[in-house]
Each structure stands twice: as structure tokens, then as C-alpha cells.
Specification:
By secondary structure, the protein is mainly α. The chain is built from four helices and no strands. The chain is globular. The mean pLDDT is 94.
Length: 95
């Protein structure tokens, strides 16, 4: 259930982000978020993460910090794809 809710939050956050962009970013679980061939630039990425954090707080009543030392200290970045981001958010929500 929580996994579906996270997916919905991310899809809605992407829709909100797209309303601010000139070119639409299409939701895809394997979409690269950072690194070579990423779907968004660094400013767009930060905006996207902020929107997700706000939506998680509003819709799931939990305050999380996605972009953190915990995220960047991992051997495998949780920001590689939408799928890895969903897993990381699920982990944050279960703490």
C-alpha cells in the first residue's frame, strides 16, 4: 500500500513540476534523475525533490528529508532512477 502511495506522490509531483517547465518530463520508473543522460538539470532536480517532500508531508503526514547526507553517502545513489528513489522514500518513511 505504502509503495503505491509513494508512486502516486511522485507522479503528482512530476505533474506539478511539468507545469513549471517548458518541456514535459514523462514518468518512467527507469528515468535517470542524476548523472549522465539525466532527465533533468540540477535546479529542476532540486525543485522536484522539494515538491516530493512537501507532498509526502501533506498526503502522508510525515516529514522526510530526501536530499541529505544519508542519501549521498550511499554506495549506490537513491537518485539513479525513479524506482531507486521510490525505494529510498519507502525506507525513509519506515524509520
Amino acid at each position: 500500500m505504502k509503495k503505491m502511495k509513494i508512486e502516486t506522490v511522485i507522479k503528482e509531483a512530476l505533474e506539478e513540476l511539468n507545469s513549471q517547465l517548458d518541456e514535459e518530463i514523462v514518468y518512467d520508473k527507469e528515468m535517470k534523475l542524476i548523472g549522465k543522460n539525466a532527465s533533468m538539470d540540477s535546479m529542476t532536480f532540486v525543485t522536484f525533490m522539494t515538491i516530493i517532500e512537501e507532498r509526502v508531508e501533506d498526503e502522508m503526514d510525515q516529514d522526510i528529508e530526501i536530499v541529505s547526507d544519508k542519501a549521498f553517502s550511499r554506495e549506490n545513489s537513491p537518485f539513479r532512477t525513479i524506482a531507486t528513489l521510490e525505494d529510498f522514500i519507502a525506507e525513509l518513511l519506515s524509520e
